[in-house]
Design goal:
By secondary structure, the protein is mostly helical. The protein folds into 2 domains: 400 residues, no CATH class; 151 residues, Tetratricopeptide repeat domain (Serine Threonine Protein Phosphatase 5, Tetratricopeptide repeat). It has 34 helices and no strands.
Length: 745
């Protein structure tokens, strides 16, 4: 087999031939400290908009906001973190990091984005340290610790750190696991290089090898699904360490056997990573109902993803969190991939770095793409976080090569100046594009509108845009986007389920039922589809069938707290408030920090006439919530309007109603109505009349169906009479929105 040549054009005959000697290892002085600081500042400038971005509707809610397991450090929480494959990944260390952050601070986007940026800066410094070691072995005419190596390493780290492809990992809170796992992975690589240095210096490499193995293990525990760690260290041994290859017997002879034995624990880690990744994809719950794809299709998707990532590395325009796959685009992209691979192979004798970078890129990215992953979408930007480090090394190595002295020891100032200018311009241009890309990730709306504009045939982009439109009160626009997504990808169960929700919201129950049933047919484990079909059946007053589907959803996903809410709502509609209260009590037991259960149990008990117990539940809920509007509103309504005079307390009702009024910025008609009733119960009828008129004014725009009911109460207040709850049911105006049928989705 042909050996990997050194960069001076010759072939190394012995592994140690290219290792710099201890002599001449001058230091680059203050640059050792200043350059990493400069890199950190450069990254901060490039990602300056990122910490001010919002959460996006792509995993942030499921992983951070609604995740009740990664909030504390109890035994049950730890058991969940170290056993779950939630969101299709095994990442206990990342869940632990989320729990620490949730314990120290509220779930604010700024905190999560700032933490991600800090981890990314650490990774950039690690890349700088790795680049210094690698370039010292490949730039043969420069001093190992000279200015050429330092500047080349800085260029490599800057190329990696400020590239726009990094935005998908840094500006996406749910991708923090990628950053954390990369930290451990890069630490492992750096330790492996230190082990080789120790071996060359006559010291034992074992401590460094143990650190390297530990880093690989921690990387897997933080969410790294790259099962090619052994391939990366083997690639390093071939080039630039040259412990393998270079002559007869240098691959499998006696001198090479210790190198292969050393890889055994790395192979074990790689196999374990592959097994973990397989289980994670088998349990994935965010891409339900995906059609089975042939191996040929998966292979085409993998090659398309490889080539697309390479193209976006060198021409980072119109980046998208997901890309549309087509046979035509795949053929073109695969041609580009093959051409670059052939070119790197042909250059290997004169310049081995491009081939090493190409292989590093393929080894790190391929396991995350179509052949091995279940996802039917081409998701490249985030997945290239580690893979593009190989190209960063080529970029830094090229600069260092131009900066090194010529063979006669003289500087080539013209070439060096031109190369430095190109490098500065490239890093500056990348930094500018990164700032622009951070703005794309500012909100879910900006992200998915941009993605749909530049990838109009991407079904997943339209699906996420539809989900955003749904959550922001525009179900008709959402139905349009989701219908288009279903046309582009008719066999995706998640899209069909979302389409059913949109059709339900615009009262097209027939289309909603069809979409939900198709989603279930595509994947019988799709618990949200069973829940959605239950909503339709409940609207059609087929409550028994609705309950059957909800019980099925509960069996499929017993950790979904929203199904408990929906079961309770159906029980209430069946006239069984006591049974509903018991379901909500179970929800409180399992998820004590989910405030909606307190609201629903309290109102169920009140509907059942258990006023004292209902009041106690609502008051307990106020102690666990940061958003008191609904609980305070229901509690104030009870204290102001209860038929049982022993439960009424006008002053307390005013206090809780004013709390809810402030929490809703005095813009919610139902809460304003409650405040008016509280004033009336407290004998402040002038305030009650004024407040009720305001409630009517607000309701005319957002809830015109309750205006007549509000006017009836206004007439009572004008007669100096308080309002009393009617014997039949509590009025809709006092019922919190989250407890309405279907609202919990």
């Amino acid at each position: 087999m042909t050996s990997i040549p050194n960069d001076s054009g010759g072939t190394s005959a012995h592994p140690s031939d290219s290792v710099p000697s201890a002599q001449g290892r001058g230091r680059s002085g203050p640059l050792v400290v200043l350059l990493p600081i400069l890199l950190g500042l450069l990254v901060i400038v490039a990602f300056l908009p990122a910490p001010y971005n919002d959460f996006v509707n792509r995993g942030d809610e499921d992983m951070i906001l609604r995740n009740t397991h990664a909030r504390d450090f109890g035994r049950a929480h730890f058991a969940w973190m170290f056993t779950t494959f939630h969101m299709g990944r095994y990442q206990p260390l990342n869940w632990l990091a989320f729990a620490i952050m949730r314990r120290l601070t509220p779930p604010e986007p700024f905190v999560f984005h700032l933490t991600g940026l800090a981890i990314h800066i650490i990774n950039v410094v690690l890349v700088y340290a790795i680049a210094r070691k690698l370039l010292a072995r490949t730039i043969t005419r420069a001093r190992p610790a000279g200015i050429e190596i330092a500047l080349g390493a800085t260029a490599a780290a800057a190329f990696f750190g400020v590239h726009p492809l990094r935005v998908a990992s840094v500006a996406w809170a749910a991708a923090q696991g990628d950053l954390l796992s990369a930290t451990f992975y890069l630490t492992a690589v750096l330790a492996y290089l230190h082990a080789h240095d120790a071996r060359q210096a006559g010291s034992s490499p074992r401590p460094w090898l143990l650190l390297s193995l530990s880093g690989m293990v921690l990387s897997v525990l933080a969410g790294n699904n790259v099962a090619t760690s052994v391939a990366i260290v083997l690639l390093l041994d071939i080039y630039p360490l040259r412990r393998l290859g270079g002559g007869p017997g240098r691959w499998f002879g006696p001198a090479a056997r210790p190198v292969w034995r050393e890889k055994a624990p790395f192979l074990v880690i790689a196999v374990a990573t592959a097994v973990v990744a397989w289980f994670a994809h088998a349990h994935i719950d965010v891409m339900q109902g995906l059609p089975d794809r042939t191996f040929t299709r998966r292979l085409a998707e993998s090659l398309f993803g490889l080539s697309l990532g390479m193209w976006k590395t060198f021409w980072p325009r119109h980046l998208s969190p997901v890309y549309a796959f087509s046979v035509r685009s795949a053929a073109t992209a695969i041609g580009v991939l093959a051409a670059t691979g052939v070119l790197a192979w042909l250059l290997r004798r004169r310049w081995a770095a491009p081939l090493a970078g190409w292989l590093c890129y393929a080894f790190l990215l391929l396991p995350l793409l179509g052949v091995f992953a279940r996802s039917g979408q081409t998701e490249v930007d985030r997945l290239t976080y580690l893979a593009c480090i190989g190209w960063a090394m080529v970029f830094g190595g090229a600069l260092a090569w131009f900066l090194q002295p010529a063979a006669d020891g003289r500087r080539r100032w013209g070439a060096a100046t031109a190369a430095a200018a190109v490098a500065v311009a490239a890093v500056g241009g990348l930094s500018f594009r990164t700032q622009r890309q951070c703005e794309v990730w500012n909100t879910s709306a900006s992200l998915w509108e941009y993605a749909v504009t530049h990838e109009p045939d991407c079904a997943m982009a339209r699906m996420y845009l539809g989900e955003y439109l749904m959550s922001h009160g525009d179900p008709r626009a959402a139905a349009h986007e989701l219908s288009e997504a279903a046309r582009l990808c008719p066999d995706n169960g998640q899209i069909q389920c979302d389409l059913g929700i949109a059709m339900y919201e615009i009262d097209n129950l027939a289309e909603a039922s069809t979409a939900f049933r198709r989603a279930i047919a595509l994947d019988p484990r799709n618990d949200p589809a069973y829940r959605g079909l239950a909503w339709v059946l409940a609207e059609q007053n087929d409550l028994d069938a609705a309950m059957e589907h909800l019980r099925t959803a509960q069996r499929l996903n017993p950790d979904e707290f929203r199904v408990y809410i929906e079961i309770g709502r159906v029980l209430q509609r069946q006239g069984r408030p006591d049974a509903a209260a018991n379901v909500y009590a179970e929800g409180i037991r399992r998820w004590p920090d989910v405030e909606i259960f307190y609201t629903l149990r309290g109102t169920s008990l009140i509907d059942a006439g258990q006023y004292a117990e209902g009041r106690k539940t609502l008051e307990k809920g106020l102690t666990v919530t940061d958003a008191p509007a609904e609980l305070a509103n229901d509690l104030a309504w009870l204290l102001a309007t209860c038929r049982d005079e022993t439960q009424r307390d006008g002053e307390a009702a005013v206090r809780f109603a004013e709390l809810a009024h402030r929490a809703t910025l005095a813009e919610d008609p139902a809460v304003t109505d409650t405040l008016a009733a509280a004033y009336a119960e407290a004998g402040r009828f002038d305030d009650a009349v004024r407040t009720q008129k305001r409630a009517i004014e607000l309701a005319r725009f957002v809830r015109p169906q309750v205006v007549a009911e509000f006017q009836e109460r206004l007439a009572l207040f004008e007669k100096h009479q308080p309002y009393r709850e009617k014997p039949t049911t509590r009025p809709a105006s006092s019922r919190p929105a989250a407890s309405q049928p279907g609202a919990s989705r």
